[in-house]
Amino acid sequence: MQGLSAAPPAAFLLLLLRLSALLLPAAAAPGAERELSPSSRLAAGAARVALHYLNFQTASPGTLQALGQVRKATVKSIPDSGHKYYLQFTTEDYKSGENARSCLATVLYPKTKSPPVVNIKCMQSKDQKQIQEEDNRLYQKIRHQTKPITGNNIPDSHGNIEPVLEPVWALAVAGSSYIMWEKSTENMGYFMAQVKSVKQWIRKDDFTEFDYTILLHEIPTQEIISCHMRLTWLPGHPLKVKYFCASENQGLEDGSGMESGSAAGVLHEKGPNF
Amino acid sequence: MKVLVLLAALVAAATSIKTFTGHQVLRIVPTTEEELQKVHELQDMEELQLDFWLAPRAPGHPVDIRVPPSSLQPLKEHLEDNDISYSIMIKDVQALVDHEQTEMLQRPRQLVLSTDSFNYDTYHTLDEIYSFIDLLVAENPNLVSKLEIGRSTEDRPLYVLKFSRGGTNRPAIWIDTGIHSREWVTQASGVWFAKKIVQDHENDEGLAAVLDEIDIFLEIVTNPDGFAFTHTENRLWRKTRSTYSGSTCVGVDANRNWNSAFGESGASRNPCSETYHGPYPNSEPEVKAIVDFVSNHGNIKAFISIHSYSQLLLYAYGYTSTPAPDQKELHEIAEQAVTALSSLYGTSYEYGSIFTTIYQASGNSVDWTYDQGIKYSFTFELRDTGYYGFLLPASQIIPTAQETWLALKVIMQYTLEHPY
Description:
heterodimer; A: Nuclear Transport Factor 2, Chain: A; 6-stranded antiparallel beta sheet; 5-stranded antiparallel beta sheet; 4 helices; globular; disordered N terminus; B: alpha/beta; Alpha-Beta Plaits; Aminopeptidase; 2 domains; 8-stranded mixed beta sheet; 4-stranded antiparallel beta sheet; 39% helix
């Protein structure tokens, strides 16, 4: 746009300021809680972070939750702490898209380089027994294989997942939720794009153990991040995840001044959690 | 396997005169020299008209025999009388031949002879889509024509389908799919849209009304180099396949290469990045071809770029939070379009400006076309919301295309009813 010869009217400027304040994360005065549009990317992003955390904590590949709709979102700037989001949203069953349930969550993005702090409470739509049954079904499918499970490109190029690999894929989603939660920031979000490879380690005890190479889709950079993930699982027990993500682009910098994280040389471990 | 080779031969034979209805293939495994001898003797019984697919060799080696229906009873009795056990490998040879023939005709990799036998519920290669385009034009010469608007970095033709009832330089609507090659459901939907226009252009009132006054341009494979690469090397490839000196990395994000806030926040100047904007605006021939086309046409009234995934309907701007001057109107159109889309399968979409709804993106197509004066400029992000992401199962192609089409029709009809 070429320079305008006359200054824009004051009212228009004020509207601009207000709208920018709504959209840019930094602007709120400390303590003031401002409302976000439910369709705003910041609201959706925060809700997804809360769900990554929930899916990892629940440790139930049979009852993974996906984001339904954001109903209400506000954000508060907490001095010396970070930005805290207050969210009301619905979730649905990851696979079927059904069983909508309501959730309330807070997501604090710390100023320091540490994972978001999440508190989430959802209405229970399935009872414990149903959840156990789902997980046991998946568990039995894994245990009934006569050879260690291996696989590549799940889903394949055409979006197909072989029935025998379904439980292993669902576990990958649950496990990678831990990675995605840890890596998420106010401006950087993740989806699990594909399981590049999976290999089962047979154990003497009842736990199942897998080595994964998973591909994460990072937004807004659009990068595909390759992560190695070692996961152990037994229904009713917390997920144990160790991971290492490759840094895709050395010295990546872009016009918006975001940081690119690198987990090079650092192995993150998350053990059983109460 | 030998059986398949023989089957193929049968298929060839079957296409001419013979039929193998009721023929069975029996397998015998002689365990002794005596049994082997008995099986040898079968070969001399010419009246049985036995066809040995696997001839007798030695004890322990299978013998496969195709048996005509009239010989089945006598042969089986003969074997039973001589204590020779057998199994039925193929219960009806003709049924198997028929099945194989149907398979061969339907298999997408085979030559398709009409757009009616084209598989819309599967993903296709570049060659298959280009063949489809030629077939569609040949079948509908009065409505559809193919334009080559340029060539890609790797010298592949860039084809646009023109749907027109006539006239000269009528106002037009532009739709592109596949600018980001890994978004496979978009090219697949583009193919479906093309067929849909041809099927409905007379009997669907809304579409007919649009085509009476407005032309539709549809570029199905906007990034053919990238698309070919997703088939051969890397399913998750996004960018073009250009290279520029100073970097070993390949490709430019074709949706950051437009001349609108080029190089500003919302794109990357790193050639190795997925959102690399390129060395200068329109450096990518894939983008320049559209820019030239739109500029030369001069009468495009709606411009729709289709991406996946996220289930969003977006309008300008992406490079700034400043609302577009027509924001209110665009928001209302988007609301109507999304309502229509959701009405089919309940698929829920969010809508708003690119910046507020998805992320900051500079140098994108819709910002440029909007600032050129093409008021009804929209970007779609199709299914899903991250469950399968780019790897959307083929079974969702048609439902996705169907619901998206309803939204497109809302935009097209609105364009018709609100000329500017």
